[in-house]
Amino acid sequence: MNIEELQWFVTLAEVEHVTEAAAELGISQPTLSRSLARLELQVGAPLFDRLNRRLQLNSYGRILLEHARRSIDEMRSATERIATLRDPETGTVRLAFLHSQAGGFVPDLLRRFRAEAPRVQFELFQGPAHAIAERLANGQTDLAITSPRPDGHPWRVLYVERLCLAVPRGHRFAGRSRIRLADAADEPFVALRPGFGLRLLTDELCADAGISPPVVFEAMEIPTMEGLVAAGFGVAVVPVPRPDRTEPGAAYIPLTEATAKRQIGLTWSTDREMAPTARRLADFLMHIRNELN
């Protein structure tokens, strides 16, 4: 039972004449008669009483007519909602982004985009890299701003963050202008939980430096790490913060390692077609990314 045949049935129920209904629908009389026969076979009962050359809905037909009209209305509503979501002027973008990008970078991007597309709506998700990768895989998000690059997905770098060592203000390293990560081999570390993107980068940097420092606390957000550093719990590898977002009790020392950086990029799934609204945001980000570094 498809939606087209339900629409034919509704027209036939309103006209009550096969020839006239077929003419109104622009189909042949035998085609409409066969469609009616299929419907009656599917529901297991006759839908009309035959009176001379005309048809009249019986009790079974009236039940089907009620549900057919409701089904057609629901399908029309669904089609209209889908069209609205896909409209690049008024549609909805499902965007996921890292916790660490919520403090300024992503809101600034969205502010600039909304100046060009004020009627576009957003469904936002903020979380760690592994949760973002999971949402990409299961189709819960259209675009993601994340790091590092999720396996098997396209990737466009938006900007690069340098990494530094955050230490308490009174720490013996606090006065340095630069530092090798190996110099902190004996320091207790505050880090993100395993699986977080920055934790993966930190572990790689420590392995490259030949150190395995003790991790005294595993946090879920970078501001928590910085707060614990300021409280004297240890040191931490974090992105160099913007001047207005530094932790007052911490000093930030750039790392000398060339690999001490984090690429923040845009990614999406290739398993499904990108919605026009999401494509519009992606194109916008690609256009302005040179301004971000």
UniProtKB/TrEMBL annotation:
> One Pfam family from the UniProt entry?
HTH_1
Record has Hydrolase as a keyword = no
Supply the alphabetized keyword list: Activator, DNA-binding, Transcription, Transcription regulation
What is a single molecular function from GO for this protein?
A: DNA-binding transcription factor activity
Q: Which GO terms describe its cellular component?
A: protein-DNA complex
Give every HTH lysR-type domain span: 1-58
Its function? Answer: Required for the induction the katG gene for catalase. Involved in the response to hydrogen peroxide.
Q: What is the protein name given in its UniProt record?
A: Probable hydrogen peroxide-inducible genes activator
Q: Which organism is it from?
A: Mycolicibacterium frederiksbergense
